[in-house]
Amino acid sequence: MTIKLLRLVFFYCFLIGVWKLVSLSEIFPPYLFPDPTLVWQSLLANLGSGLIVDALKNSLTRLAIGYFLAFIVGSIIGMANAISKTLDDTIGSLIVGLQSLPSIAWLPFAILWFGLNESAIIFVVFMGTVCAIAISVQAGVVTLPPLLKRAGLTFGANRWQMCRYVIIPGILPSLVQGLKLGWSFAWRSLLAGELLFYTPGIGHLLNLGRDLNDVNLLAATMIVIVVVGLAVDRLVFGRVDSAVRRRWGLA
């Protein structure tokens, strides 16, 4: 663990050093390529003023609502498609097709249907996430070892008990991967939606930096986006994935 931490620290220090050298070389003008020291100062100033904290709070609230709805709906669709051949041939094909559609393409519809408000952004997050979760859940059920199903039937499990004690635990590894993939889609969908029309959030800070020609604010906001993405991936999904793999002997 210590070696891994030192490796990470060395790597990011190296990146910052290269960034600083490029900035000092003045290959690019300062208003186009920020100095890491000024970016750090901008980050601290906007954290202290509450600008970044409030924007992050608004964005994560929208993300949580859209992601939760996508998880519920996507899980139901995925389970249904895995159980029913008819649904897989109809709804399943639609889900696969919609998965290839960029989530931001839903924004014009969202604005027409919901207006310029929170619901439009939540809808974009939902549409950008639900297909990935549905496909992962369906794949988990389909690839479930038949031996587990036969064992459940041998012990006299009814349909509800098969779902509760055999299918859901069996698809957990695939479900975790689907949730992780859905999170990445949701995060990108959220930022894309916030970028395209005014609403308080992280995406708005990127627009604000552009409008003010403040490249330091732009870079600071992008750092926050990357840090949040890494934190959720490592601290939430990384731990859940490790726990599931240990529980099922896959680690």
Task: Describe what you observe in this structure.
With 251 residues, the chain is mainly alpha-helical. Helices cover 83% and strands 0% of the residues. The protein has eleven helices and no strands. The chain has helices at residues 2-25, 36-49, 51-83, 85-99, 107-114, 118-142, 146-154, 159-170, 172-196, 202-211, 215-247. The model has no long low-confidence stretch (mean pLDDT 84).
Compact summary:
The protein has 251 residues and is mainly alpha-helical.
Largest sheet: none
Helix share, percent: over 70%
What is the oligomeric state here? single chain
Class of secondary structure makeup: mainly alpha
> What is the helix/strand order?
HHHHHHHHHHH
User: In what range is the share of β-strand residues?
Assistant: under 5%
Using only CA atoms, what is the Rg? Answer: 22 Å
Specify the overall morphology. globular
Number of helices: 11
N-end to C-end Cα span: 17 Å
